[in-house]
Amino acid sequence: MTKSLPAAPLRSPTSESNGTDPAYEQSIVIPNRLITIADTFDKKEHSRFVTSQIPTDLSIQVQDVTFNVHKYPLVSKCGYIGRLELQPSISNFGYDLKLENLPGGAEAFEIILKFCYGLPVDFNSYSIAPLRCASEYLDMSEEYEDGNLISKTEAFLTLVILSSWKETITVIKSCETLSPWAENLQIVRRCCDSIAWKASRENSTSGDIVNEEGWWFEDVATLRIDHFARIITTVKAKGTKPEIIGKCIIHYAKKWLPGLDVELEGLRGYGYGKNELQFSVSIGGNEEGGVGHKEQRTIIESLVSILPPQQEAVPCKFFLQILKMAMVYSASPALISELEKRVGMMLEDAKVNDLLIPNYKNEDHGKLVNSPEHNTMHNIDVVQRIVEYFLMQEQQQQQKQQKIGKISVSRLLDNYLAEIARDPNLSITKFQVLAESLPENARTCHDGLYRAIDTYLKSHASLAEHDRRRLCKIMNCEKLSLDACTHAAQNERLPLRTVVQVLFSEQVKMRTAMQGKETAPRTDNSEQEESQSSNSLEIRNLRTELENVKTRMGGLQSDYAELQREYEKLSHRQKIVPGWSSGWRKIKNSFHTKVEGDETGNQQRRSNSTSRRSGWRRRLSIS
Question: What is the pTM of this model?
Fold first, then answer.
């Protein structure tokens, strides 16, 4: 494609020239002929030609494009080219020059050539930053010509660009490829200050409605993370409300971190490989058109660094989302620890699904340990540390706030335990440690804890009896509701000792309900201690009675075994059968006589627990 451009008069580089160059002398003597110096401006694939009556004498290479131009139009305005010692060309042209790392590349240099030849040049928001940096690179200052390119681009940038919101956004985007020139020339700083000033000015005059103040979120979310962080820092310094800054950061994170909103609702599915649990979380948009792994980590670290310290600025859900992403992209341990502390400070606002943090596997972390204990579906250790940070934070709060926070977190933790209890690789130790991480007085009701324990026992049917007893020790049967006691009394997965405690607690609650009395408030320490002591005494008595029954049952089984052996010896005699039957009936009657005598001696105690003892007998007969 060929462009015919009008010529422009040339000005000598300096008025004190000695006139040793013939071409230079010609430009002084015959100025009228110089008007037609640029008759046409031809473009080819990798070259540009200025065709005129005067042949070109300079070949300049910028990137992969070669410009064949006249020397003096550039020397008169570009101090950098005038100071160079140009090398003679081995081709038909006079000199060769290669401009390396020119800001803006060939496109900016072509506009500069038009300016040097005196052709009309239109400035816009897309080209002004590259032209300003390139003019600085070529030293196109007022020292060489009045109204040179540096002063013109600077005036356009200050007077036109910075007064417009959209033009400023466009310019700061164009600066992403102009480092470090755009930084050194303060173009980025001035644009960021202008954007921050406009955003904070609107925020300060639009009232308390946060939703109306987010008009600028989408524009700043299109910027690179370092420019976005600078704008947010400036906006924060101008006194913008933390809630607005938090909403803007969340908007940016959702745009640049695909998969941030991915949630796990319990165990969606798991399968087994040879020795490890297979689990994967799909993160859409990361493979097609997304930024790379390293860039994602940089975005996460930058966003965390500019988060406002106020708790009301960002919800707990976002902290847990960004924590998951930080673990996916292998962020530094210090960053992950900082996020865990922030979550712990506001754990009472979290939801169960937000705490379900998978055990991510990636190349940086390598393969997980083949031990099933380390192949749990969810990262239990992270939640454990979050709870510890929460307890540390609660110790610094007032007593009233402390109790309310712990009660809320206890419900959250019980629901979380019920979710992870279905994991076949979750060890009883991890489950117990997490369940006991809260102090005893944090739970006013143990129904949620009972549900979690029952879920674990159901999912781990092969659990040994001593492990079942160990797990049930976490639960306080006295803090179970009447419905939970009814369910637990019929639960065959619970150990016998736990069932006895549940039956006793159920009877006490039923007696209290029948008498129309309410349970004493938990806050009354004296009444609570008295009730606990009386309950403990009754439990000890019941345990003693149960042991006596077991002892008698053992003696009966020994007698039965002895009779069985005797019967086998005398089985060939028919007359032994009535005698053996008679003997067995005597032993059976004597056992019932002993039991009835013992029951008669404990008449008062039996009147209070008739229904409970019948339940034990049914259990004993089954065993």
Answer: 0.70
Q: What is the pLDDT of residues 75-96, one digit of tens each?
A: 999 999 988 877 666 655 556 7
**Angle, in degrees to the nearest 10, between helices 380-394 and 399-420:** 170
- Compute the mean pLDDT over every residue in the chain, rounded to the nearest whole number: 76
3-state helix, strand, coil in the chain (%, to 5): 60, 5, 35
Do residues 256 and 291 lie in contact, with contact meaning Cβ atoms separated by under 8 Å? Answer: yes
DSSP string across 229-289:
HHHHHHHHHTT--HHHHHHHHHHHHHHHSTTTT----S----EE-SSSEE-----TTSSSS
Look at residues 298, 307, 338 and name the one whose alpha carbon lies nearest to residue 236: 307
Distance of CA 547 to the CA centre of its chain: 54
Contacts of 192 (CB under 8 A, 6+ apart): 172, 227, 230, 231, 234
**Residues near 270 by beta carbon (within 8 Å), at least 6 away in sequence:** 277, 278, 279, 377
pLDDT tens, residue by residue, 157-179: 999 999 999 999 999 999 999 98
**Count of beta carbons in the 10 Å neighbourhood of residue 64:** 10
Which sign, positive or negative, has the C-alpha torsion 269, 272, 276, 280? negative
Alpha-carbon gap, residue 61 to 48, rounded angstroms: 10
Q: Work out the angle between the directed axes of helices 333-345 and 316-328 (0-180°, nearest 10).
A: 160
Helix axes 447-459, 399-420, angle to 10 degrees: 20
Spatial CA neighbour of 428 closest among 467, 375, 473: 467
Q: Taken in order 521, 526, 532, 537, is the CA torsion positive or negative?
A: negative
Residues 6 or more apart whose Cβ sits within 8 Å of residue 384: 433, 434, 437
**What type of residue sits at position 228?**
F
DSSP secondary structure string for all residues of 477-532: GGGS-HHHHHHHHT-TTS-HHHHHHHHHHHHHHHHHHHTT-PPPPTT-HHHHHHHH
Please tell me the distance from the alpha carbon of residue 475 to that of residue 447, in angstroms, as a whole number. 9
Scan for tokens 């997304």, then name that residue.
290
